[in-house]
Each structure stands twice: as C-alpha cells, then as structure tokens.
Amino acid sequence: MRNLLDRFRGAGGTSGSSGAGTFRADFTASLVVFLVAVPLCVGVAVASGVPAELGLITGIVGGLVTGFLPGSSLQVSGPAAGLTVLVYEAVERYGVAALGVLVLISGLLQLAMGALGLGRWFRAISVAVVQGMLAGIGLVLIAGQLYALADAKAPSSGLDKIFSIPGLIGDVAGSADALKAVAVGAGTIAVLVLWPRFRQGAKVLPAPLAAVALATAATAIFDLPIARVEVKGLLDAIQPPGGGEFQALAEVGVIGTVLAFTLIASAESLFSAAAVDRLHDGPRTDYNKELMAQGAGNTVCGLLGALPMTAVIVRSAANVQAGAKTKASRVLHGVWLLVFAVLFPSALGIIPVATLAGVLVYSGWKLIPTKDLVPLWKTHRGEAIILIVTAGAIVITNMFEGVIIGLLMAVAKTAWETSHVHVEVTGREDGDGSDSGSGTGSGTGSGSGDKPLHVRVRGNATFLRLPKLLDELEGLPHEREVELDLTGLRHVDHACEMALATWTERHNAVVKRGAALEERIPA
Predict the structure, then answer these.
(1) The whole model's pTM is what?
(2) Hey, which residues does 453 pair with through a beta bridge?
(3) CA distances from 149 to 80, 169, 269, 355 (A)
(4) Is the pLDDT score of 193 beyond 80?
(5) How many Å apart are CA 437 and CA 100, to the nearest integer?
(6) Within a 10 A sphere around the Cβ of 72, how many other Cβ atoms?
(7) What's the DSSP call for residue 349?
(8) Residue 489: helix, strand or coil by DSSP?
C-alpha cells in the first residue's frame, strides 16, 4: 500500500503526514468526482442512443486505464457530451455493434498522433478561448441540468435548452412532483453554497458530499416521488467487436466517422487539459503523453464496445475544486464506479437525479468567469469579445466547433495587432529634406522637384493592413515619382506585395504621362 501511495504522491508529498494528507484529499475528491460522473456517464449514453451501462464502462476505463497513465495528472476522462451527436448518428447508421470498431480505430490513431508529437501543437491556445470554453460548457451544463432538476427530459441542442426554459417553468408550476424535485435540487445548491461557511464541517466533509448526503436522506425520509439513478449489470452490455464489424471499415462513411471521432476527441481532451492547467498550480500537462493516454483509453473502450472517451472538463473541474492532489483521485473514481455499478447497483438507486443535477448546476456556474469578465472588458476588450463569442458559439453549436471559432478569432486578432506598418517618406521637399509619417494625408506638400520620393515601408505588411497602407500612399504628391523600398519589412504577404508593386507602377506611369503632357504645352 505504501508503494502505491508513493507512486501517486508526486510533488504533493513525500513522506509522513504530508503523504497521508495527500491521499486523504485524493480520496475525498474521488468520491466527489464519482458522484459527478454517474449522471454524466448515464446521461451521455442515453442521449447517444446506447444502453446506459456503456457510459459507465467508458467512465470506468477513464479512471482505471487513462487515470494511471501520464499526461495530465488531475483531469478526468469519460464519455463526453461533445460526441453525443456523432455517436447517435453512427449508431443509427451502423448499429451499436459497430461502435466498438469505430472507437478502437480512433484510439489507435490517437496513440499514433501522440507518438508523432502532434499533441504539443495544442499548447498554443489563447487564454480567452480557454475561458470562453469553460463559460460555454458551464452555460450548456446549467441549461441542461435545469431540466434534470425537474425530472424532465432536456432538448438536444444548447439553444433549444435555453429557449425551452419558459415552457419548463410552466410545466413545473403545474406539477406537484416536479416542484418537489426542484426543491430537492435547489436545496442541494443551497448546501453547496452555504456549507463552506461552516469551516469545521467543511474540513470533515466536502460540500458536494454533504449536499448529496443531506438531499438523499431527506428524499428517503419524506419518501418523495422523484427520479433516482437507475443502473443495471455491466457484463451483458459488453460487446467486443467481431470480424463482421471490421469489414465496415471499407466504407467511406465509416472512415469519415472514425476521423471525426479522432479529431474531436483529441481536440476536446487537449483543450480541456489547457483549461484544467489554469485551475491548479500543480504539474503542467504533457500534451503528447496525454494524447497517448486518451488513445489507450479509447482502444480499451473499443475492445469492450463502449462509448468513445474524452477528458471531461466538468469532472476535471470538480476534481480540482474538491482538493485533488495527484492522479490517485481519478483512478479511485473509476474504482467507485466499478464497485458500485457491479456489486451494489441498488446503492446508486437511492440517489435522487435532482440532487446530482444540483451539483452539476453549481459546477457549471463555477466554470463561468463572472469575476474576470468586467476587468477583462476594461483592459483587453478584444480578448473579452473572443471569450464571449467562444462561449456563445459553444452554446449555439457544440464544444468543438465553438472552440474552433474562438481560435480563429484569436488568430485573426493576433494577425491584426501584429501587422503594423509605418511609411517613411524622404525627399518630400525640393532639397534633401525629409519627412516621415504614418497617417493618411501625409503627402500634400508643395514641392515640385524632379527627384523621386523615396518611400520606405517598415513593419509587417499583410492584407489586413492593405487598405490603410494604400490610403497613405494615395496621399503622396501626385506629381512626383516614387521609389518604393520594402527592405524594412519583416514580413510581407503575396497580396500586399502585388498591390504595392501595382500601385507604384501605376503611380509612376501617371506622373510620367503628366510630365510629358506639360512639355508639349508651349509656355
């Protein structure tokens, strides 16, 4: 046992009481993550059109397999909502039996990508995009779990969840059972908010555990008619892929689905790793190792015929917030999933769904950077806009597409800010006098010398700054030829280079024609 503890301690503790304290923190955190993981595993499976047990299998593999491997020490893996639509469409088209093959090949591809060092490219992630991802996931999570609070079925898309809330309120107001479920969920949230104020109690029992325990006890004592967690046996749900399923890989559609699984699962996991790194001060993620860890987990899930796996920010955030110190917490959460789902399924059946929904609503709210948004808007408005757009895009589309939109905005913003150009004009006066400027209209001088103007462009010239640059050049004296010097440019793209060359040629041609015309006119 001591060897196992030493393996998991890492930087959190080395010996004695510090090691025991680290393990105790990981133990309690694992219970919190377990309670958060149960409704997510089951809910994602049901939404994907497969038996609920397959979601639990993926959660177990995420803890016992991926949890042991190096990469990101505190993020937790399992079935993710971001793949729900893809899985549902794949199951509808190819059947549940083919799911194992799709996930297996995706896992092998992730292993190859990690071995080739492709994971490190995900380190270049804007902070605003990461915060926007957290906020978007938090909003979608809250909107979806509001329905679970009332024991109601949530719509599939993020927008439908939000737009259907008024109807949900009306349904709850007209149903006594729904009101009881909401009361249990609201009470859970209240305990989560107030429990940390009781410092003695918070030291003994984390707020999520206290909230779930109190709500479960109240439900049992008053025999409330609200939904509980439903779990059956896992062995019958395991469906290893056979030879017939592998033959489906010859279809073009199957290959496209495998690539989509691979890219989306990898992106979500590594984006999540960047977000989790911002939530704690421990060791940073090794992206290549984390990608390989996800690949190993998906390979095992494929062999068992389970759902695809990604790192899940909700569980990971709950893990960090509950005080986890090492990877032991995520491994243990897989142990609890396995033990309770296999040996004591009835024990899960006493936990109200509304209670777990309350835990998730609170976790979703913690993911939204409410305190940072106003200061960010005042100091870095562009970053704040990226954060808001990323969060909104995740709500409207899904996590993967929303993050891609945020990344594209961040790249465009960076390109705009770095593509500064400065125009220096020499020889504006009749002699060797010089002038320099970068504003429009800098060239209305009265000089009429025969020497051409020397125009030197410095900085980074891209198509983003081309309109401004051409405006400055158009402001130069129309009666003087121009010698354009681009040696001061650190970068010039093709569009800008062609436009500048064309402008110079046209400008000088006009000047020459004007001079020739003046020579023909008698004095």
Answers:
(1) 0.67
(2) 482
(3) 20, 11, 28, 7
(4) yes
(5) 65
(6) 30
(7) T
(8) strand
**Coil vs helix vs strand at 23:** helix
DSSP 62-97: HHHTGGGSSS-SS-EEE--GGGHHHHHHHHHHH-GG
Return phi, psi of residue 339, to 5°.
-65, -50
d(Cα 386, Cα 372) in Å, to the nearest integer? 14
How many CB atoms are located within 10 Å of the residue 89 CB?
14
Q: Which pair of structure tokens corresponds to residue 66?
A: 């991926």
Chain CA centroid to CA 235, Å? 33
Strands 310-312 and 482-485: unpaired
Residue 226 pLDDT > 80: yes
- HEC sequence for 389-430: HHHHHHHHCCHHHHHHHHHHHHHHHHHHHHCCEEEEEECCCC
d(CA 425, CA 360): 62
CA gyration radius, the chain: 30
- Name the residue among 145, 212, 224 with its Cα closest to residue 178: 224
DSSP tally for the chain: helices H, then strands E = 23, 7
HSE-CB at 480 with a 13 A cutoff on CA atoms is: 27
For 507, the 3-state DSSP assignment is helix
> How confident is the model over 162-185, as a mean pLDDT?
89
Degrees to nearest 5, angle at CA 212 with 210 and 216: 120
Q: Give the number of other CB atoms < 10 A from CB of residue 330.
A: 31
Q: Which amino acid is at 216?
A: T
Q: The tokens 């489906």 sit on which residue? A: 248
pLDDT digits (tens, 9 = 90+) for 356-398: 788 878 877 887 888 888 888 888 888 899 999 989 988 887 7
pLDDT, one tens digit per residue, over 401-437 is 787 888 889 888 887 777 778 888 887 665 444 444 4
